[in-house]
Design brief:
Helix content: 25-40%
Radius of gyration: 19 Å
Number of helices: 13
Strand order of the largest sheet: 3-2-1-4-5-6-10
Distance between the termini: 32 Å
Structural class: alpha/beta
Mean pLDDT: 92
Strand content: 15-25%
Largest sheet: 7 strands, parallel
Low-confidence stretches: none
CATH architecture of one domain: 3-Layer(aba) Sandwich
Order of helices and strands: EHEEHEHHEHEEHEEHHEEHEHHHHEE
Shape: globular
CATH superfamily of one domain: NAD(P)-binding Rossmann-like Domain
């Protein structure tokens, strides 16, 4: 297939592009390159790409594609809290418009990167499946719910949307992120010897490796249409639901000379949930995840050691909120998270 990947220069996208290419697909990217230069090790190799803002995409840009994998977004809760309106503009309105113009352009498959954060804080302690009610705790989670709900009416005989509810990602990527829990705990352990927990450690999190997210996108894109048409899939493994304290203990076991430390004043996180992932592995076995958190921690530790991760890099290059805040402070980004004229290639 000829596939457009939005957000291809991001954390997931930098793994997705070579993953799809290896499977024999023709890949084109679309990205505004907010995080160009935020790589660890060699920069990811760009495919042919459209350098543009999601909010500016028109049907003419999407002609000739068989599928769109829509990863592009303001990608976590702290970024969403920076200005909730930015989150709705990009994660909701731009996503729905992208689906509309993709349909207009004749794209048959539209895979939307949603999130398990839309479950928020379920009213049960049992793992929730795709039929569970929504209880989002953040603008990010709310934006994903509304995007799913507004894309769904576009489903037709010629346009097949699928909603991939990714859980909390982890694992090494050339476009490393340090603001997701497994990556963060492992980085603190490597840099300081302290596995720093900023909550009380009790929240539950389902966790999935970045490569397994790519595997799910590929498997669902290649799956028979009647299996995935207008369907939501939780992306992860049911046996990989962990309390944060358990993840921290694993990190301390793997990173030499490290110990678990609780930050003063840490409180229980309202985002606490366990997720059931049976549907994905049952209906599309090729999309079933293969990684474990323990294996992912080992991978991250090896990469941090190989590339010599420093505190300055960690805090200023790999924490998304700090990087964006600096771009704003330097005048390179302006209102609406848009590049100021002449600054489009100034990230990093």
């Amino acid at each position: 297939m000829k596939v457009l990947v939005t957000g291809h220069n991001g954390y997931i996208g930098a793994v997705m592009v070579p993953f799809l290419q290896k499977a024999g697909h023709e890949v084109v990217g679309l990205d505004t390159y907010l995080f160009a230069g935020c790589h660890q090790g060699p920069a990811p190799v760009d495919p042919p790409a459209l350098r543009m803002d999601l909010r500016d995409v028109k049907a003419e840009h999407l002609e000739g594609f068989d599928a769109v994998m829509h990863l592009g977004a303001l990608s976590n809760d702290p970024l969403g809290d920076l200005n909730p309106q930015f989150t709705y503009d990009i994660n909701l309105h731009a996503s729905v418009n992208l689906a509309k113009v993709a349909k207009e352009a004749g794209v048959e498959r539209f895979l939307f990167s949603s999130s398990c954060s839309l479950y928020g804080k379920p009213k049960t302690d049992d793992p929730v499946d795709e039929t569970a009610g929504f209880n989002p705790q953040t603008p990010y989670g709310e934006s994903k719910i509304k995007a799913e709900q507004q894309i769904a009416p576009l489903a037709s005989d010629d346009f097949s949307p699928t909603y991939l509810r990714n859980t909390t990602a982890y694992g090494w990527s050339p476009q490393l992120r340090g603001d997701i829990v497994v990556n963060n705990l492992t980085a603190h352990a490597f840099i300081s010897g302290e596995v720093l927990i900023k909550s009380d450690g009790t929240p539950w999190r389902p966790l999935v490796h970045v490569e397994d997210i790519c595997r799910a996108f590929l498997g669902l894109m290649e799956a028979p249409r009647d299996v995935i048409h207008d369907q939501a899939f939780n992306i992860g493994r049911t046996d990989e639901n962990f309390q944060i304290s358990t993840v921290a203990d694993m990190v301390a076991e793997i990173v030499p000379n490290s110990k678990v430390v609780y930050a003063p004043g840490g409180e229980a996180d309202t985002r606490s949930y366990k997720v059931d992932f049976t549907k994905l592995s049952t209906l599309v076995p090729a999309a079933a995840p293969q990684w474990t958190v323990r294996k992912g921690i080992e991978e991250l530790y090896a990469a941090y050691k190989e590339y010599g991760l420093t505190l300055d890099e960690f805090e200023n290059r790999y924490l998304r909120i700090k990087h964006l805040s600096k771009l704003f402070a330097d005048g390179r980004l302006g209102e609406g998270v848009r590049w100021q004229p002449g600054n489009e290639k100034a990230a990093g």
